[in-house]
Amino acid sequence: MWDRHGPGAVPGLAFFYLLFLLAACSPVKAPVPPPPGNAAAVSVKPAYATEAEKLNAGIEHGLTLIGKQPGDTLLPLEVVSLYQERARLTGDYENYAKAEALLAGVPAASPPSASLCFARARLHYTLHRIKSARAALDTCPANADSAELAALHSDIALYSGRYRAAEEGYRALVNGVGTPAHYVRLGLLKKWLGSPGEAAAFIEAAEKRYHAGAPVMLAWLKLQRGLIALDRGRLDEALALYWLASDALGGWWLIDEHIAEVLHLSGKTQEARKMYEDIVARTGNPEFMDALAAIERELGHADAAKRLTQQARAIYEKWLAAFPEAAAGHALEHFLQDAADAKYALTLAQKNFDTRPYGESAIALAKAWMLNGKADRAVPLIEAQLANGWDTAEAYWVLGEAMAQSGVPQGAQKAQQAKAEALRRNPRSEKMYAYAPLIGAPKSSGPRQ
Length: 449
Description:
By secondary structure, the protein is mainly alpha-helical. Helix content is 71%, strand content 0%.
């Protein structure tokens, strides 16, 4: 699934192939000049719907070509990439099912071609199947692109909790090939390792080196800079960058939901509510149903909040059944909000951590332990991540929460110290990261399954 935080969310190169596909089936038309003195009136901002239609057309044309050239083993791999691009753009899981089905039908040589082994590894990685991604890379032939191999191995190192290995890999790529994607990878890692200034600089460097002009990538890069600002508690800066992202690709729900998040954090609850209502209507995404439910609950609309929460739960259950690894991280936030789900949330969080034992999954597992009344299990989990190099405000704040609840020696003092570290990184940590179930109270027994 799209992942707004990680390198897996970097829009891929399928857009370039998409342009080739569309050019292959469309006549070239001379541009029509704007009326004199009225250029602004005919300028059109790139829009989400337009990009979605381009992907739809590329996929349909690709499928047609596959039907006409059944012996071509590269065309299916390109369409698999396009399905993944459409999944990231739209958030629709069905694209992953179609990608998997198409990939499964590609004849397998022994060993597989570099294109096939990379396609398998990328899809597994995108769906958070880290062990399967590593196994796919192990089948790559000797002539496989070394930079692509290094990038994927570094991605796997990151999500396996081997941050220093990931950083070494990314730095070597930046200092070698140095593509925009390599700068992005290193930038996002530096954000998580406690260097937000460096992170922003690397993302800006990626922007300067990106010349293809795809609106999705241009918008996504602005969005990532906004997320870095948000993690520092700089709401005005984050919002400004989100609006720049919207200028690059208007109507993209991924940008709009971040704008709504900042509006809510800024106390503009009604504005955020209207935006979330629109986003939910457009996407049907359970994450935004939960965000809207939280606002409704805040406004005292318990029945509306309950309906939204129930709708979100039903969708998450379907996602978890179809793509358990990819959906777990997103679904966890839903199940962590209700104390009655404590036991299930812990099971889900442990599986998520076992799949990707890195900082964000460790924080989610720590919250699950706290929800189950075992904050003492959460403390060493977060401490291990911090000792390993993970350095975010959220990690320190959750550690402080866990220490306050755990009863460890000098727990109150250590909790204060941890929270002070969080506030130093993000002065808005308490509002953004404070954790407690929104519904019910922790119970020692009887959680629903």
